[in-house]
Amino acid sequence: MTKGGWVYIMADRYRGAMYVGVTADLVRRVQQHREGTGSDHVAEYGLTRIVYAERFEEILPAIAREKTFKRWRRDWKFALIEADNPDWRDLWDDWFPPHRLQE
Predict the structure, then answer these.
(1) Do the beta carbons of residue 83 and residue 77 sit within 8 Å?
(2) How far, CA to CA in Å, does 43 sit from each of 2, 19, 22, 30, 75?
(3) Half-sphere CA count of 88, side-chain side, radius 13 A
(4) Which of 25, 32, 94, 95 is the most buried if burial means most Cβ atoms within 10 Å?
(5) CA-to-CA distance for 90 and 72, rounded, in angstroms?
(6) Is the overall model pTM greater than 0.85, yes or no?
(7) Quick one: which H or E segment has residue 101?
(8) Distance CA 19, CA 53 (A)
(9) Structural domains in the chain?
């Protein structure tokens, strides 16, 4: 059985530095990035905010989509993010609200 995958975009702020990645375990990977252990680029630029995520049933289409995103102009990535997340809020906070973590 093939494991699915995610394409995601990390950022430091609204329309700031970005990182496009692919993973089979999105929560684990974002945690790594937030802790500074996910990738040197993400750690160097402080990209701790996940602003976009797209799920795929299979990992190969996710990898292909990531490669496509990496060829895109910044403005195209901005438009993609802002279609669903116009304020570039950290989706981590939606998934794990601070009040839930304290319970």
Answers:
(1) no
(2) 30, 11, 17, 12, 23
(3) 16
(4) 32
(5) 22
(6) yes
(7) helix 98-101
(8) 12
(9) 5-101 (3.40.1440.10)
